[in-house]
Amino acid sequence: MPELPEVEVVRRGLERWVAHRTVADAEVLHQRAVRRHLAGADDFADRLKGHRIGVPSRRGKYLWLPLEDTGQSVLAHLGMSGQLLVQPQSARDEKHLRVRVRFTDALDTELRFVDQRTFGGLSLHDNTPDGLPDVIAHIARDPLDPLFDDEAFHHALRRKRTTIKRALLDQSLISGVGNIYADEALWRARIHYERPTAGFTRPRTLLLLGHVRDVMNAALTAGGTSFDSLYVNVNGESGYFDRSLDAYGREGLPCRRCGTPVRRRAWMNRSSYFCPSCQRAPRVTS
Ligand SMILES: [Zn+2]
Fold first, then answer.
1. Shared-domain flag, residues 190 and 70
2. Measured in angstroms, how far is the CA atom of residue 258 from the centroid of ligand 1?
3. Longest distance between any two alpha carbons in the chain, whole Å
4. Which residues contact 59 (CB under 8 A, 6 or more apart)?
5. What are the catalytic residues?
6. What is the pLDDT of residues 155-195, one digit of tens each?
7. pLDDT over 60 (residue 238)
8. Which of 45, 122, 182, 186 has the fewest Cβ atoms surrounding its Cβ within 10 A?
């Protein structure tokens, strides 16, 4: 799954190449890509036609294109393999092209939704008064959002009676932190993933939030050139920041801080990577 920085890179690319353009027509090449739009593919295409795209927005890993003067937005579900591409109209269709959006202006580019495994798709939703597609109204703000409330997060964390990595992945507390960035931020903050949140002090919460933001901003910086080209792309591989990871995927390799081999543990159908010296496991109390 793409994580927040990759989705933000795509959002910036769309802002540059698609915002303020008016839809000439939308073509759905595979019904499955708009299956979440219950009124069907023709209705989906009709509702886009003639409307201007506003500034693309994001919350956590959710990305949407506002349709001006409709009170609605197109929400992109990238799933495992979904990509939003801005391509010259003359470019050959991708093998897994699912939706094409053409614009009324003279620019020679169109927006394409390409998805090999068709777990993703596009759907149209009414906006909340905050301008959020209604289906994601329950998603918490992400840590890069200027309106994210550190203090409220700290209190919610303490009330939650859970462990810290579960909390970081809980989209109702904080959005956009996936498995990779959770491991990276916990390593930087020297916190074990199973530490109970009830005992978190304010300085510890703020320290961790600072590291969450740092790893995300570092990934954004590393990916910052990929939206400079015409080709806007996201996929689950997220290759561009791999080499800068300190914990995730480094089982058996020396911790970059203390040299102790990094460990991997099965965790909720995924893996957690951590340094057993820098990130001491909490004592089990009965
Ligand atoms: Zn270490």
1. no
2. 4
3. 69
4. 132, 136, 139, 141, 142, 145, 175, 176
5. 2-3, 61, 270
6. 999 999 899 999 999 999 999 898 888 999 999 999 999 99
7. no
8. 45
Structure token pair of residue 162: 């859970």
Three-state SS annotation for 208-232: HHHHHHHHHHHHHHHCCCCCCCCCC
Cα(276) to centroid(ligand 1), Å: 7
Distance of CA 220 from the midpoint of ligand 1 (Å): 25
Does residue 248 have a pLDDT over 70?
yes
- Count of other CB atoms within 10 angstroms of residue 229: 10
Distance CA 215, CA 213 (A): 6
CA of 184 to the centre of ligand 1 (A): 12
pLDDT digits over 52-95, tens only? 999 999 999 899 999 999 999 999 988 777 888 899 999 999 99
Provide, rounded to the nearest whole percent, the portion of the chain with pLDDT above 90. Answer: 70
Q: Which of 136, 161, 182 lies at the terminal end of a domain, its last residue?
A: 136
Q: Is residue 203 part of a domain?
A: yes
Residue 252 belongs to domain with CATH number: 1.10.8.50
Which of 241, 227, 162, 189 is CA-nearest to residue 3? Answer: 241
pLDDT tens track for 102-113: 999 999 999 999
- Number of domains within the chain: 2
